[in-house]
Design brief:
With 491 residues, the chain is an alpha/beta fold. The protein contains 16 helices and 19 strands. Strands 6, 7, 8, 9, 10, 11, 12 and 13 form an eight-stranded mixed sheet that branches. It has a six-stranded mixed sheet with strand order 18-17-14-15-16-19, sandwiched between helices. Strands 1-2-3 form a three-stranded antiparallel sheet, with no helix packed on it. It folds into three domains: 95 residues, no CATH class; 165 residues, VC0802-like, CATH 3.30.2130; 207 residues, Rossmann fold (3-Layer(aba) Sandwich), CATH 3.40.50.
Amino acid sequence: MGIAAYLARRGRGSPDAKLCRTPAETGTNDKMKLLVYNNLDSGVFCVFAADSTDFTAKPGNLCHPWLKIPLLHGQNDFRQTPAIKTRAGHQTPPLALFSTERYAMTENLHVVVHYAELGLKGKNRPFFERQLAKNIRAVLTELGPVQTKRFWGRLLVTIPASTPFAEVRKRLQPLFGMAYFAPVRVVSQAWDDIQEAVLEQARLLLDPDTSFRVKAHRGDKRFPLISPEIGRQLGAAIVAMTGSPVDLQSPAVTIYVNIQVEHAYIFAEKIPGAGGLPVGVTGRVMGLLSGGIDSPVAAHLMLKRGCKVDFVHFHALRSAEEAANSKIVELARHVITPQGIPAQVHLVPYHPFQMRLLTNESRYELVIFRRFMARVAQDLARQHHAQAIVTGDNLGQVASQTLENLVAVEEAVEMPIFRPLLCFDKQEIIGLAQQLGTFDLSVQPYKDCCSIVDRHPATRVRADQLTEIESAIDFPQLIADSLAETTTVRV
């Protein structure tokens, strides 16, 4: 197929092309001719090359298709392509490629999404798929109109072609629920279209020293070729074009061909996803957010298991406004934003509790405060339809997190308390915080309430002593006073 016809068929602007006169046509030894495709509407200039030994200047064959050098999506002005060895053995000189800020095309950009453990679900699988599709649309909506379509155990995401794929990748990679995703070429089931798309991938990725394989899947059993034969025929075409060696066991590049009803899907790069379940499929929890390293990581792990997370933070700052402008809200935003869902941060003042315990100081103060926080979190959870409380507790990490003290806190509430980090060591938690991107923010100086309570708390509380101390405190009124002064920030 000629380039002019190819461009017209793909809808990339006007099919009019200009054959540039080069020294090769004026009797010099330069064997290269250039075909310049100029789409004035989009401001895109594509430069194609043809070896004169294989070149026939006639309508419909302006450039030999296997030597076409496409303008890569997202290239900036004046990029140089490396020299390419042609099939005839000639070394082509570098060609300049010019574009606007991004490669404008009339075609859409397609991304295929392969599920993680969603694929193991039974009759409720559509519920999980719909939530994943909703979350994908949420994180990509700022980039333009987004469409999602379920097909054969996968999702197909369609966005405007003008969208830089680097930005799509940045937003999809941390989203829970995906095993991998890949930019995909969608073509008809016509064999010429499939082969053309596969060869286009091969041109971009292969050279005579790069091994490859073609992995085909015939989902539509009406297609005349079986999967192994599809792979053999396409592989042979690639070898004829590039001279690349075939390696079926450990190739450098794998080109995937998935033939489904009406369309075929061709891709070569599988980008790992974040795994887990789509946020929103397993309910809502209330996460205690301290401002330290552990609690943001705990909330992140609950998100990975499909929970929506709201936050509650107890602050010792002078005003609600100061708390709302503190690092706490930024920490919550950093944890929640990649999932494309909103969350609430409830900022509860510490001073009502502090005033009530002025006359009841003891080595049990920190445990009593933690029981108080659990009770407030439980009330907030019930108000906002959350089903459990989440903390960053880690068994034995500090004095307040001994087994006895953890049990004492849990006995203060009826709602379950989840502790995703219970059995992690500190270095593992720090590593997770660094991967999440919250570590630097967490270690910034901040007045944490737990740090200003008794610095030498009891490590093994006695139930009778707790009962005696708490009997002197009107906890229902204390909780009501604290909630009355609570400020809620949406992130």
